[in-house]
Amino acid sequence: MSVFFDSPISDESIPEGEAELLLSGIGITNGIAPSESSEYRQLLAAVHDVAEHVLDLPDYTVPVDARYPRQNIHRPTLEQQQFGNAWAHKFLIRGNPDATLLKGKTLCLKDNVAVAGVPQFFGTDAIEPWTPSSDATVVSRVLEAGVTIVGTTICENFCNSTSSYTSAQGVVHNPHAEGYSAGGSTSGGSALVGGGVVDIAIGADQGGSIRVPSSFCGCVGLKPTHGLVPYTGMSSGDAINDHAGPIARTVKDVASCLDAISGRDDFDDRTLGAPLHGSAHYSQRLQHSISGMRIGLLTEGFEHRIVDGNVKETVLSAAYAFQKLGATVEEVSLPLHLEGPAIWTIQQRIAGTLGLMGLAHGRRGLFSTEYEAARQPWNDQSFQKLFPSTKNTIINGLSLMKSYPGLYAKTMNVAQQLRDSYEKLFQEYDLILMPTTPFVAPQNLDWKRGDSPMAALKPSMGITINTAIFDVTGHPALSLPVGFAPSSTDPDIKLPVGMQLVGGLWQEQKILDAAFAWESANDWQKIGVPGGVDKKISLKL
């Protein structure tokens, strides 16, 4: 307490009755005796003095490596844009010329990844863009690995959507069919990779935001084990759900990027269980042989009522192709999988709201004070500019915390049950397999501010039934393109289908090996298209 009383305390900055007013907000109307009020007012003034002192201290940031200057930072014109509005900012940063791991590769970054000197939008115009003063850890690492970074790419509104029409910076189109969703929230990066413009994108995944757009755009997208890839310097949805990972057109490029970005980070306590940076060699260890691998087809992942029949058939065909590669493939069931969306929804709404309101705490790390300064307390004007999904998160979270104060603890207990149940399943199976998304990319919505909230949210409903659960459990999961299926609105339009491979905690190598073996033995771009290869099998599910 001595820090409060090193100098005389003035309570003039604190209105009389402020302590009582604060308590009334949580339902306590008679918690302070009148005789105590002035002293609690003094104590409140003292802690405000401490807060002002901390705000006046110099911030602590990581210096930018002078070896990697930023060149030609600019917001692309409409003529320079691709797939609608895929780019946030274009620029050039050349990586280590002596490195070989990612030499010759181009890379883009989701617009929630900090690049010093490059303004960030985070998919919104509710707050002004801010400019980071430090690079995210993943940025420093890919530059050391020799990559050339060519820009940041559009993400959806506060990363709160798996559609690609919610960003205030514009709609992103699927590279295989204009007017169709590229998925979200890593929409721009997936479109550019799937369209062959950039080799690799680094995305973020809190409910499927790497895997969903990878599935829609025909990319390989990996959400690693929670904590394997540092999240330092990335705008957070929630520390429990935050995952960063690579998106590419080949498994080899995904594995190489994972080699570059994975490993313990002194700034991020989520990585304390990760191997040392530089010790992983996923790309070197890739092998075609998966003889003896046991793969389980998750009944609950295929049999959900909204899974499209063509998607189901395409993924099953791809799954049974593993048998030709020497793996055992059989059906498995985990009924608790169906609780995943409910558990994710409650956990994400509560924790996500605290993050959006600047109230998240409990983690060690280096955080973006530039972002916090830009996102001042919400007011009518800024809140009105949010996309309905972000508004809904805050409204839901405030209501849940008010009405169910013990709900978060119960939710996290069931989340641990989900994690343990899957870990038990992985004692018997190397991998679990299911469709990444229940249907191919839907059409983009022509949403305008002021349109119906329900209409705005409807196209995204159900997309994450098989992805969000693994953000809660933390298990690694990869979406692999395995063919094309017709659009539900126009059967003449064929769109990519993603197969999700899920492994035990820290078992990325098994996932990458299986995906690499399948990719090497099959040409997914010829499956399900006119004149291509249609693999028909006897469906067992």
Structure description:
The chain contains 17 helices and 14 strands. It has 541 residues and is an alpha/beta fold. It has two domains: 2-56, no CATH class; 71-342 and 407-526, Alpha-Beta Complex (Amidase signature (AS) enzymes), CATH 3.90.1300.10. The strands form two sheets. The protein has a twelve-stranded mixed beta sheet with strand order 1-2-4-3-7-9-8-13-14-12-10-11, with helices on both faces. It has a two-stranded antiparallel ribbon with strand order 5-6. Helix 10 crosses helix 13 and helix 10 crosses helix 14 (407-425).
List keywords for this structure.
541 residues, alpha/beta, Amidase signature (AS) enzymes, 2 domains, twelve-stranded mixed beta sheet, two-stranded antiparallel sheet, 17 helices, 14 strands, 15% strand, AS_sf
Strand order of the largest sheet: 1-2-4-3-7-9-8-13-14-12-10-11
Provide the structure class. Answer: alpha/beta
Radius of gyration: 24 Å
Topology, number of strands: 14
Low-confidence parts, pLDDT < 50 over ≥5 residues? none
